[in-house]
Amino acid sequence: MKITLGRQSILLLGVNGLFALAGALSGTFLNVFLWKSRPDYTMIGWFTISQQLAIGITFWLAGKWVKEHNKMTTLRLGTACSGIFYLLVLWTGEQAVDWIWPLGLLLGCALGLFWIAFNVVYFEVTDRENRDLFNGWVGLLGSMAGIIGPWFSGLIISRMSDNTGYRFIFTVSLVIYIVAVICSFFLKKRKVSGTYRWSEPIRQLSIPNSPWRTLAMGLFAQGVREGVFAFLIALLVYLATTQEYKLGQFSLITSAVALVSYWAAGKWFKPHYRYRGMFAGGLLLLVVLFPLLWKVTYGTLLLMGIGSAIAMPLYMLPMISAGFDMMGTSGENVEKRVELVVLRELCLMCGRLFGLTIFMITVVNSPSQQVLIWLIIALGAFPLIGWAFMRKLLLKPLAREVSKEPK
pLDDT category, 401, cuts 50, 70, 90? Predict the structure, then answer.
């Protein structure tokens, strides 16, 4: 049977694609913009920590509105707040580094509002059969945005004097966020049901032998890596080259590879491949980091980026799909889908904050590049730890598939 996506799924992909494009245009260079105003690892670290705190708290608080009221309003508000963030960056200019916490909290709230609504709607418009296909398209569109956005931004920024290029790119992102808000009105208002349970994430984790405990540890391990890698790799590329254009080129190449790998994963990566695929992806994500021990150059960073782009779909698709599949295992879980989405994000947030705490301790005590590389490798091992936690959950659907085979 051919697996397809419905009209609402395609519309949701479109809104997500615009959101990703706006973020790719400006988000790739946001930390570079702050670094050029004040070259300080701890400042970048606090900016990222403030975002992660705001994302987690926003997920938990906004969950009530998403479940009991209009989740589309939440999605639009998150998109609009992202635009407001870049409006404020344009207004403050180089003084943005003096407003790290307020700006970081605003951006985190914007991301939290968008993603809690997106994740809940995503669950509602997909099922177990087409979820990997949808995730593949999300990765594909994200990769396309990563190809176009950073390359275009790097080209513009490098050709304009002072910070004129940054102001232009931030303005373009603001316009795209406005377009995304307009497009979101074509998404249908989703039905609401039930009462939001504030303590549900804690209750789920307190149940002995709960599969959500297993998933929580896997998500925590995933967050440890991505909390630091999300900003540090791009910053290292800029420091190695001192050219925004090179950073744009790096994103173009790695995103082009990711586009192909996500397309292939969306087409051929079936549920019964998740167990072995996730292990292979986690192992490759670690192996590609070792060339950095030899020398941190544009070439070694690019090798790492290409390898990570190939491995990431193998690792991420099982992690994402397994969690959302668990939400659909019973009518009770479907009813609590908002709380379970919140649980998922809180686990990721705790992992990201743990990784960022290790990063902050490291740069305060020994901010040398060699120490940073060893830190990157240590954090890069966490996907394998995540697979170790997740392997039992991944084997369950595999066992069901085997049991269905004719004897």
Answer: very low
The listed CATH number (3.20.20.140, 1.20.1740.10, 1.20.1250.20, 1.10.12.10) that belongs to domain 7-184+209-400: 1.20.1250.20
* 8 A C-beta contact, residue 383 and residue 317: no
Per-residue pLDDT, 54: 95
CB 88 within 8 A of CB 30: no
The domains of the chain are located at 7-184+209-400
* pTM for this model (two decimals): 0.86
> Using one digit for the tens of pLDDT, what is the confidence trace for 164-186?
889 999 999 999 999 998 888 88
Write the pLDDT tens digit of every residue in 235-269. 999 999 988 999 999 999 998 898 888 878 777 77
Alpha-carbon dihedral 381, 321, 265, 232, rounded to 10 degrees: -40
What pLDDT is recorded for position 169?
92
Alpha-carbon dihedral angle through residues 224, 227, 231, 237, given to the nearest 10 degrees: 10
pLDDT tens-digit series, residues 50-76: 999 999 999 899 888 888 888 888 999
What would the 3-class secondary structure string for the chain be?
CCCCCCHHHHHHHHHHHHHHHHHHHHHHHHHHHHHHHCCCHHHHHHHHHHHHHHHHHHHHHHHHHHHHCCHHHHHHHHHHHHHHHHHHHHHHHHHHHHHHHHHHHHHHHHHHHHHHHHHHHHHHHCCCCCHHHHHHHHHHHHHHHHHHHHHHHHHHHHHCCCCHHHHHHHHHHHHHHHHHHHHHCCCCCCCCCCCCCCCHHHHHHHCCCCHHHHHHHHHHHHHHHHHHHHHHHHHHHHHHHCCHHHHHHHHHHHHHHHHHHHHHHHHHCCHHHHHHHHHHHHHHHHHCCCHHHHCCCHHHHHHHHHHHHHHHHHHHHHHHHHHHHHHCCCHHHHHCHHHHHHHHHHHHHHHHHHHHHHHHHHHHHCCCHHHHHHHHHHHHCHHHHHHHHHHHHHHHHHHHHHHHCCC
> Contact 305/233 with Cβ under 8 angstroms?
yes
pLDDT tops 60 at residue 387: yes
What number is the average pLDDT over the span 100-104?
95
Higher pLDDT among residues 366 and 235, named by residue: 235
